[in-house]
Write a structure and sequence with these properties.
The protein is of the alpha+beta class. The chain has helices spanning 13-26, 43-49, 70-79, and strands spanning 2-8, 32-38, 55-58, 61-65. Strand 1 (2-8), helix 1 and strand 2 form a beta-alpha-beta unit.
């Protein structure tokens, strides 16, 4: 199963939109696990991602920053292998 990680923080409307888009794609693609990471829970993550969220990774590889690109996510889920 592919793992999609969404780096987010409360109150981020772009993060909310990315989550909704990922969940919508879930029905079209092979099974995936969505893991959400709140960057506010870790100082290092906050410093690393604050200006870039939402950040989306597939199996540990960054595929989108600032906005979800559904086509790029689809391609990554088809090509990135654990």
């Amino acid at each position: 199963m592919r793992v999609v990680t969404l780096y987010t923080r409360p109150g981020c409307h772009l993060c909310d939109e990315a989550r909704e888009a990922i969940l919508a794609l879930r029905g079209e693609l092979a099974p995936l696990e969505l893991r959400e990471v709140d960057i506010d829970s870790d100082d290092a993550l906050h410093a690393r991602y604050l200006e870039r969220i939402p950040v989306v990774e597939v199996d540990g590889e960054v595929v989108c920053e600032l906005a979800l690109e559904p086509g790029r996510l689809r391609l990554s889920l088809d090509t990135v292998r654990p």
